[in-house]
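Recap from last week: sequence in, structure out.
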Amino acid sequence: MTWAQRRDLDTMLRKETNGFTPLPVERMRAGFAAMMAGFPVPAGVRRTPTELAGRPAIRVEPEGPARPGTILYFHGGSFALGSPETGMVNTANLVRRTGIPAISLDYRLAPEHPFPAAIEDCLAAYRSLLDADADAGTDPAPIAFAGDSAGGGLAVTTSLAARDAGLPLPAALVAFSPGLDQTRTGSSMTAKQGRDPYFTPEGMAYTGAMYLAGQDPAQPLLSPAVHGDLAGLPPVLIQVGTNELLLDDAVRFAARATAAEVDVILDITAGVPHVFQAFGDALDEAGQALDRAALFLAQHLGPAAPVR
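Predicted structure tokens:
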């Protein structure tokens, strides 16, 4: 328990954030990219530009021998910001710890491409991975979905879309601080105001309107924590911090998934911010959470191996 680290990180983030100011999306994207560029990508991985289902992507592989399987990673950014590069710190950390290659997808963003464009791209990417094995005449290699924030939500909603399309489901889902309720009705949206150093309800409403484009948020693929039929989902690991406006998205989703007989691990860390796993250099709990996520992936994608 490193409460001093948690307090120092919270103080630092509050100095760097100044509440919500509505800005053009291009400025928001540039600011988000600049912020995420400050998170160091761990050594021990190779990054190669690629393409998946017609969308740009980055393949991330361990420098040493790779284990079987693929982590299909979905970056965060409120469905309007971000890229595989902004999510690279977590993608690379999972690859380094598991030895399992990942592909991080550059899905389409709102407001140019509102709901359901991102889910369509993620589902097409997954279908492409499945088809590649079928075309090669080999058994499907195990695939897991992982993502942070909006990307954590996409790990869930893409699984629901795959199920409804009759596709085989991924072996496991890992979601860091997932956004799972566009209705924004969770109690933490009120209770954690002022505690969350990143988000405000007003800021979430601003980017949420870009993604919704006037559509009703009370839909299973927009608010699975409230409206989704979660039956049949693969094992899920959700990690979230107690300082998050999105805390209740994770808590309610885990409860409903449990009621639907889904294997769920709800992993809550006290006093940490949104997607705290990215802060490995400043927070011991970040590395510990990544170790737990890597173990979960290794257990569901193949024979367990020591976490590096």
